[in-house]
Amino acid sequence: MELGLVTLLRAAWIAVTLPIIVASIPSSKLSSFHQLASRFANRGKTMQQSSYKFTVPQRFFSHFYVVAVVWTTLLLLTTWLYAYRMAPLSSESFHFSHLASLLTGGSHIFSFQKSHLRPLEHRYRVWRIVLLLLLLEAQVVRRLFETFYVSNYSPSARLHIFAYLTGLFYYIAAPLSLCCTCAPEVFKFTLNLVSEFIVKGKNKMPAIEIDWWESVNTLTKLGWRQWIGTAIFLWGWIHQFRCHAILGSMGAHAEQVDDYVIPSGDWFDIVSSPHYLAEIVIYAGLVVASGGGDLTIWLLFAFVVANLAFAAAETHNWYLRKFENYPRNRFAIIPFVY
Ligand SMILES: NC(=O)c1ccc[n+]([C@@H]2O[C@H](COP(=O)([O-])OP(=O)(O)OC[C@H]3O[C@@H](n4cnc5c(N)ncnc54)[C@H](OP(=O)(O)O)[C@@H]3O)[C@@H](O)[C@H]2O)c1
């Protein structure tokens, strides 16, 4: 099952990334493919009114984050519980977990004691995944908050139904990609807990006690890659929040609905889509924090870069067409490169 899930996710990321890369190749032979891709990908200001067929309101972006928060929270809590019970890193928690199981008469049918024999590297991998899910949780919760309280979606802004479905797919597949190497065992563990609950009943279930402080302590001891990855993630996270606040406040500067102004401040002074750049920084942080050895996470990152670079190029060209005085020294998304 593990291999099946991993293969499926990798195939899915390749399948959604390749068309975007092909559409981004600057060749006249591919112009009709580029136009088709733009038709699906453009939204809000970059979408032409003639493409309004098969669209949904752009404020439906909030649906992505509702799905993302529910799904990521579920994966985070079950993986965390699994890590705490089955993959302890400190000897105290190992003994606590073992003792608790003996005292509560941990049954052989339901207990996973054999998992304690797993190699240390495996246990580190499980805790690294807890950290990745925790970081993604911080991202999607903030995005949910922003879609409700920071972003200022114009009533006429639309999103193609294809982009809407891709967004829903993305927020199911992205959290799963971060934890796919241990998701099957976490799933089995959760299923066992639920079965135990059904068979024994609530009163006979051993209390699930998590020492949160010890868990956080474990996360801080994972290694230097996790520290650097978390720092990169937070750097992108803070800048994206600032850039979204700038965009959200721009409705107030516009003279009428659907009127746009040239944004400035924070990373807007260097690139046209700094919030996309920040998203790339955020996911780069996740790649580093993962240790860099998981191909599925690299493929997820490749999709994020390809997708946002394509959208940023469309946005940049839109700014150049719309504003004669648009700062010529601004790049589309990657400073001094693109
Ligand atoms: N991980 C991924 O693959 C992925 C994919 C897509 C998006 N995202 C993230 O989601 C966030 C939002 O993306 P998005 O595509 O919705 O961003 P966006 O198209 O730039 O729009 C964000 C909001 O700002 C408004 N806005 C943009 N430029 C403006 C201007 N010059 N004047 C006034 N208002 C302006 C937009 O209005 P209009 O709608 O009228 O343009 C919209 O309400 C981004 O940070 C992005 O990184 C991630």
TrEMBL record:
GO cellular component: endoplasmic reticulum
Residues of the 3-oxo-5-alpha-steroid 4-dehydrogenase C-terminal domain: 224-338
Membrane topology, from the record: Multi-pass membrane protein
GO biological process: dolichol-linked oligosaccharide biosynthetic process; polyprenol catabolic process
Keywords of this entry: Membrane, Transmembrane, Transmembrane helix
Cellular compartments annotated: Endomembrane system
Pfam families found in the cross-reference section: Steroid_dh
Recorded GO MF terms: 3-oxo-5-alpha-steroid 4-dehydrogenase activity
Major subcellular location class: membrane
Superkingdom as given in the UniProt entry: Eukaryota
Residues spanning the membrane: 6-25, 60-82, 94-112, 124-141, 161-183, 276-292, 298-320
Pathway the protein contributes to: Protein modification; protein glycosylation
Record protein name field: Polyprenol reductase 2-like
Organism: Durio zibethinus (Durian)
